[in-house]
Every structure is written in C-alpha cells, then in structure tokens.
Automatic annotation (TrEMBL):
Keyword RNA-binding annotated: yes
Protein name (Swiss-Prot/TrEMBL): RRM domain-containing protein
Organism annotation: Fagus sylvatica
SUPFAM superfamilies the UniProt entry points to: RNA-binding domain, RBD
Residue stretches of biased makeup (Low complexity): 49-61
A GO term, aspect molecular function: poly(A) binding
Length: 195
C-alpha cells in the first residue's frame, strides 16, 4: 500500500513538472505571436504609406527632378567602367552618379546614364555629343522621364517561322478520292473497283 502511495506521489510530481514546462512553452509561443503581430502591423503601416497617392506623387516628382539633372549616353564601349565615364563628363560639372545598364548576365548593354548635381551641367554635357571615348563616338542626349503605363504601342509582326494565325476553314465537302488525291480525266474504260 505504501508502495502505491510513493508511486502516485512521484507521478504527481512528474505531472506537475510537465505541466509547468508546458505552461512555459505556451507563454513563449504567446510572446512570439505578439511580437510577430507587432512586426506585421509595422510592415503594413509602411506599405500603406508607400501606396499613399501623395507619397507616390512625391516620388514621381523626385524622379522628374533627378531626370532633369541626367543625360543619356549611347554607344558606350563595353569595356568602359563608370569611373572612366565619370572622368569624361567631369568637365561639365559635379557627377553625382553613373549608371551603366547591363543585361541579366551582367554584360553591359552599351549605354549609360550620368546624373549631375546641377541642372546647368546637363547643357554642358550635351556639348560632348559625338565626342570620343575608347575610340567610340558617344551619343549624348537629355534623359527623358518614363511615365508609368505609357508604353508606345507596337504592332506584332508575324515571324517567318510561326504558322499563320488564320482560323481553320473546313472544306465544304470531303473529297471522295481521299486526302490529296485528285481525279484524273481520261477516257472511260472498263469498270474497275480499285481506283
């Protein structure tokens, strides 16, 4: 009998320890869930402010202002570095940033954008049109501002390797002679069941 009492007391102690452990884990999970809710609310508030029309108009104005201080440089040599392009345009004014566009493999596309600190430097940079850099004649124009959703329409041209997109037109009747066979016009002879 005493053995049963000792076993029950030991099992009650282990049950209480497990229960305390489970309560601690539950408390930790609740704290973690509260922290996640706070982080999510913070992110949603930031996203909501980014989609605010007033801030979107402000960012569009910032882009237009930066584009008014920038020039497009075409026919840039593929081995040119941004530092070399910056040196070439240093005489026009203080260069803020040089961007050489690359494709998805990291190879240069052959053109760059140069942003200046002053708007007046753009007019001086336009004077460098048709100047040479790395033996190539540069094409310098003022940078235009992209307007979202205003992509010019280009009609699709059918390529030579694609089939025409004309709809399937069924023949008005099936040929009695089989596909691709035409009757021959010759003198009627004896009847032949095998034509």
């Amino acid at each position: 009998m005493e053995q049963d009492d000792v076993d029950m007391a030991a099992s009650e102690n282990t049950n209480e320890a497990e229960l305390d452990d489970m309560k601690k884990r539950l408390k930790e999970m609740e704290d973690e869930a509260a922290a996640l809710r706070e982080m999510q609310a913070k992110v949603e508030s930031q996203m909501g402010s980014a989609q605010d029309p007033a801030s979107a108009a402000a960012t569009q104005a910032n882009r237009e202002e930066a584009d008014s201080r920038s020039v497009f440089v075409g026919n840039v040599d593929y081995s040119c570095t941004p530092e070399e392009v910056q040196q070439h345009f240093q005489t026009c004014g203080t260069v803020n940033r040089v961007t050489i566009r690359t494709d998805k493999f990291g190879q240069p596309k052959g053109y760059a954008y140069v942003e200046f600190l002053e708007v007046e430097a753009v007019q001086e940079a336009l004077q460098l049109n048709e100047s040479e850099l790395h033996g190539r004649q540069l094409k310098v124009t003022a940078k235009r501002t992209n307007v979202p959703g205003m992509k010019p329409y280009r009609a699709r041209r059918p390529s030579s390797n694609m089939r025409s997109r004309s709809p399937f037109i069924a023949p008005y009747m099936y040929s009695p002679y089989g596909y691709g066979k035409v009757p021959r016009f010759r003198m009627p002879m004896r009847y032949s069941p095998y034509y």
